[in-house]
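pipeline/complex-builder :: batch 7 item 3
reading input block
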Amino acid sequence: MNNTPIDSNFYAVIPAGGVGSRLWPLSRVDSPKFLLDFTGSGRSLLRETFDRVAHLVPTQRILVVTGDHHAEAVAHQLPKLAEGNLIAEPSPRESTAAIALAAAIMVNQNPDAIIGSFAADHVIRNEVAFAAAVAEAVRLAASGKVATIGIKPTSPSSAYGYIRVGDAISEVSPQVASFAAEAFVEKPALAIAQGYLDTGNHLWNAGMFVLKASLLLEILGETQPELASGVAAIAASWNTEDREDVLARVWPTLHKIAIDYSLAEPAAAKGLVAVVSAELDWTDVGDFASMSTLHPSDELTHVGPATVVGLESTGVVVSNGKKVIAVSGLTDVVIVETEDALLVTTKAQAQSVKAIVAELDRRGIRDVL
Amino acid sequence: MNNTPIDSNFYAVIPAGGVGSRLWPLSRVDSPKFLLDFTGSGRSLLRETFDRVAHLVPTQRILVVTGDHHAEAVAHQLPKLAEGNLIAEPSPRESTAAIALAAAIMVNQNPDAIIGSFAADHVIRNEVAFAAAVAEAVRLAASGKVATIGIKPTSPSSAYGYIRVGDAISEVSPQVASFAAEAFVEKPALAIAQGYLDTGNHLWNAGMFVLKASLLLEILGETQPELASGVAAIAASWNTEDREDVLARVWPTLHKIAIDYSLAEPAAAKGLVAVVSAELDWTDVGDFASMSTLHPSDELTHVGPATVVGLESTGVVVSNGKKVIAVSGLTDVVIVETEDALLVTTKAQAQSVKAIVAELDRRGIRDVL
């Protein structure tokens, strides 16, 4: 493992957005997934992400991009976040705008800036492998690559996108190695995902990208020229008294596009992408099925202080309430109780929670959303 | 249908006992099944039973037997119950003791008394057929029979005992007829219950018995002589100042036995029993599966004012709370929410609720029992 310090030009960007509506009723518009504690650690996913990154870079080089209305909660959860390193978006405009704005601001401070983007709402338990993977990704980025960190699959999942692995570049540790990345692949059918798992030539795309800020802006200048010039205009005003005016005028015009489409796929097509394969004990906590893998058990597991009695049942019960909860004769059940809502479903139906939220909205039951 | 008034010697006895632990967390030691409203009528099962019987006999001839600690709640729910017609048991001693005491008190007032026993916690929706069946049972009782009312099965249930039907006695109405009763049969296996349904020669035993009080005491004198003399001693003291003393001394010694064993089976063996077959739209509301038949639907039905959203789900949700309840991808689910408890199970597992209550007791979680 490489023990040299990570490049002094490296900055970590944490985009903290998205409600996580598949995790309703825990996640809400006003208390999104990244502000919640899903692991029972006592820290939110955002705080865990910040702390994990703070082991690798000084806090002065960690930026968080979040929505205006969550800025206060984010600042409260991250007392070590440096002054000026919280970028508040006037409205949600997807990941490209968020990361590109951070890159444009950084490149004005340091033309050699390398930025790494790490989602605020994923769980990574193998922090040693994470540190090694980031160091390798930064090394690749410094050499001009678009580096991404791919997760070695542990199951055939059709809930994730994949990265197709090409020629080996280097072996960093038993759990970390780098390769050329041939392509980014959309969420596959389960049978195809099983094939990926069997052959080992595909990794989960966890949305972590590391590259020179200047390269990011250069690629966006080709794929999304209006978006690139928009963030450049905002960044130019960032340390002036015009910031609020320019932000208010330009931000709402930026194209909403995920960074996978604006950056990753075009760069892969040009042969610019390298992938660091890592065993991170990772999950994106995308839904309650994913969340329940954090609490593995053949029995009925529960999260929170509630008294739970299970008879011939498996699954997960989440409650911070005081009710006694009894469950009988249900397999892979998901029960989530909050002060104003109760969800009962199954792991197999975990993705349908998004449809429940849509149905509540349709019926005008919005005080629980 | 017979429109003559029911025999003026007829008294209705309503034994109001039993917690109904298969209906936890709705039913509790302190608020047993018979005190609760399971039909959404706004009246408890006890009150519905009282009102149903009050259509047939004057309230002066309706007696309720219940536990000491429920006497106040019973009196509150039944403002029309006549003074002196509430018999409070110092402790639960099963149905024979309860009904025999009522019979012994009655026979002292009226040697020709005919008593009919009607459980306080069943639902009967066809009140016209019920009236006709009771009138026929009273007629049979006056002629010296032990009359019982048997329910024409509507499904192959292994949750009920059965009565085997013999020779016809008379046809009262399209829904009501009487027969000799050959035997009482314990709860059968499902395949056997299906046979009973197919051949039509067995009725559900709903535990309703009508007979002369003197005959009841005579039979008990043979089958349960100590119990018979015990209740006779209590009844002799009933209108004296010794009542409390005798009750306190004798009651705890009475044998605990269901009236099916002390009366029905021995009388059937002697050829003394007649059964009135009736289509009453009856259910004993024994568990949540039985309860859910009161709210038939192919969708997710709910009882109570809570907001319930179901996606691809069937079953029943019971809640008086204010939570929004969302259910997705569950078949025949049973969800019951009270202020201090939450039950999640399935109709198929409805009988297991009793085991949950036992488990809570075993773990010492008794404040929700």
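note: DSSP finds eleven helices and 17 strands in chain A.
queue -> next item
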